[in-house]
Structure formats: structure tokens, C-alpha cells
Amino acid sequence: xxxxxxxxxxxxxxxxxxxxxxxxxxxxxxxxxxxxxxxxxxxxxxxxxxxxxxxxxxxxxxxxxxxxxxxxxxxxxxxxxxxxxxxxxxxxxxxxxxxxxxxxxxxxxxxxxxxxxxxxxxxxxxxxxxxxxxxxxxxxxxxxxxxxxxxxxxxxxxxxxxxxxxxxxxxxxxxxxxxxxxxxxxxxxxxxxxxxxxxxxxxxxxxxx
Length: 209
Prior knowledge:
Elements: H1 22-35, H2 41-55, H3 58-69, H4 71-79, H5 81-86, E1 98-102, E2 107-112, H6 121-124, H7 129-132, H8 134-139, H9 144-150, E3 160-165, E4 171-175, H10 187-191, H11 196-200
Parallel strand pairs: 1-4, 2-3
Helix pairs in contact: 3-4
């Protein structure tokens, strides 16, 4: 581990290189599968809509809000995130093994999948396009502070930046720092402050009104 990166990656499954234009290839593959009757387009749209809107990052926001509000749950989440998250009903494909890492005044965590786009779907929904981009995947482990600045985050030099590399066996959820002035808010109100990017480590929670 260095001051700026904690890079741990163990992929035991095959990854193909990202194609030159993945969007076009995905569209062509989808068209082929539909034409052969292997995929129902309505079912596919329903799945995408569910993860993008109903699942989405709202589940993760509720997990973080509970951790902010309940010290016992926070300790459980940091000790065994998979079980703690499942206790709220959030589990399933792409969320079999999740580790929660907590931001503090001394440490800032970021998540990446350097070889593909491993991502905790049950708590964060579908990964954003930039998370899957080659630029983010390659740069975040080499120059995390520069990447953070491009997302609008400038950290003090004394703050350690740790980069966690997701795999098919292990995915990560960042627990961002609780904003100041939120002592009187309930869990639902706190969840409204938690952003998707703050749970990846490339953003901060919203400030209360």
C-alpha cells in the first residue's frame, strides 16, 4: 500500500478487452439475440428499468443512512457488509460478496474495476458509463488525486487515498462521511443526501438545506 493507492486485484474469471465501440457491439449483440428469439426486448427493458430506477443507488443510500444513524449497524456493515446489507433486503446477483470501506478525515476511498466493470448492483444499480470507461479504469490507480479533482474533489495532502479494485468475487461500497449539521435528520432524510458517486468515492454527499 502506498500513501495514495491501495491496489488489490484478484480476477479469477476471464475478461475480454473493451472493444473500440462497446455501445455499437452491445446493440448489435442485442439485435442478434432478439432476432434469434433468445431475448425478449420487453423483459430486457424491464430489467434495465428496474436496476436504473427502482434498485438504483437508493438501496445503497438507505444502507449508508442507517450506518450514519445506528452505530451498531455501522460496526456490522464494516465487519460483514454482505450480511448487514442483506438484512435490509438488498441481495442478489452482483452482490454476493460486498466489502464496505469508510471515509474519514484521514482516509478517502475510491472504487474501480480495472479489467471490466464489476459493480455492486443490488446497492448501486447499473454502473455509470464513466465507471466502465478505459480512461477511468486505467487512470484512477495511477493518479487518483487528479481523477478526484476532475470530479470536483480536492483533498488535503495529508489525506490518504485508497483505491479498491472490484472483482467478480468482491465488490466495494464506500461509506462517505456524514455531512455536518445533520444531527436532527432521520434515516429517510439522510438517505436523500447520499449520492451514487459518494458511494463510489468520486463524489461527496449533498449538504442539508
